[in-house]
Each structure stands twice: as structure tokens, then as C-alpha cells.
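User: My collaborator sent over this chain with a note saying "see what the structure looks like." That's all I know about it. Can you take a look?
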Amino acid sequence: MAKGYGQFCPVAKAAEVLGDRWNPLVLREMLYGNRYFNDISRGVPTMSRALLTQRLKELEKAGVIASHEKETGQGYEYILTPAGEALRPIIEAMGVWAQTWGSEQIAPEDLDDALLMWGMRRRINLESVPAQKIVLQFDFGGLAKGRKTHRSWWLVIEHGEVDVCQKDPGFQVDVLITADLSVFTHVWMGFTNLEPALKQGSIRFEGDRDLVRQVPTWLYLNGEWRYGMGIDHSATQLMKASRRTMMNNNP
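Assistant: Without extra context I'll predict from the sequence alone. Here is the result:
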């Protein structure tokens, strides 16, 4: 860890773990269930692999995570210790706070189609997806400067498993989703509603009509941001309590 605060205060000791840059996001990925280096790295795509290695070692030294060699002998598996799991409500509350009190505008430099796809992959409403193989193709426009202006991704959902493909997997596409990256990100985050985006044409669904109607439910596009972000019931209650307080203070 970086040099501590030199205080015995519990807040200071907690900040020594959570205050280092990237640590909350690394923990977020592990709380989502990612246990392997490459999976964690995909959730923090702008973090260098060398820095991720360093942070994982520091978190292990702090007793928040533990590591052991994979059964294959290639690489390590990282798991949360009881101390790490106990950070779940703190990390989730950070998301609730930002959703409730933070800015609702995502800056252009914050947009990342790869991160968006990885986020959707781990938070599909699998209970609502038909038993058949479902293939969704995403054609995103409006990517940040320095990147391609358009890029395609595929989500393949089958037997309760979800795969993200940046190359065409060769399967028949059930629904084609064409969208401006900023608009789609704002909708998925719950900052804006889906219906106006559909009417304006900044998000379009093409394919089997019955499946098209179901897509917003599969992807949590109807304002259920807490599911897309992985926020549980207790954190949702905190959000509601915060909003009630805000309304009471601003009659």
C-alpha cells in the first residue's frame, strides 16, 4: 500500500485500503465474481496490467484478498477474504451515492464501448431470456476521438452463459441493436429513458418482433440501473432513504 495516514482512526485505516487509485474498482470486479487476472483486467481496461498486479499484491497484503495457483498451474485465482467481502456494502453504497448525488452527465472521455459490453455481460437478466441461443449484435456509433467511429460487438447467450465477442462469432443474429454510444450508455445507467431514444432513432432494434420487445428486459434498459450496476437490496434501500431525505429538505 502507499504510505499511510499515520493515524489510528478507523476511517483513516479504511482509507488506506480504499483510497488508493483503482482499488475500489478492482474490488468492484471481484465483488461481481471475477476471480482471474484477465477477467479483472477487462473490467478496468485503462489500468495497466503492471499496476493491476501491484494492486492485487497490496490488497492481499492488507488481508482483503487471497490468491492461489490455478489448478492448471498457469496464473492465479484471486478470492475475497471475509474482510474483503465485508467491503461489499461500502462499494455498493459508493455507486448509490454517485447515482443519487453525482452528476448525471457522462463526459465523452468516460465513454468506453468495451467496458459497457463487459458490464452488460455480467448483468443480463437471465431469468427472462428464452431457453434458445440468443445472439445480439451491437453496432455503436459516436465513439471517442482517436477510436474508430463505429464498432460492432456480439453477445451470445446460451444455457445461462453469456459471451462477449468483438469478432463475428458466425451465428445468426436474433436482434441487431444500432445505437449512439453515449445515448445507450446513459439509458443503461438509468440517466435517461429508453422510449425517447427509440423515437429519436438514436437507439434502434431490428429483428424478430417478439424478441425485440423483450430486449429491454434482458438488458435492464427500463431504468433498473441498480441491477445493471449490481447493487443489492440494502443499497437500494439506502438510495431510497437518501432521496426521501432530499425531498423532505426541499419541499
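A starting point for your reply to your collaborator: Residues 10-86 form a domain with the Arc Repressor Mutant, subunit A fold (CATH 1.10.10.10).
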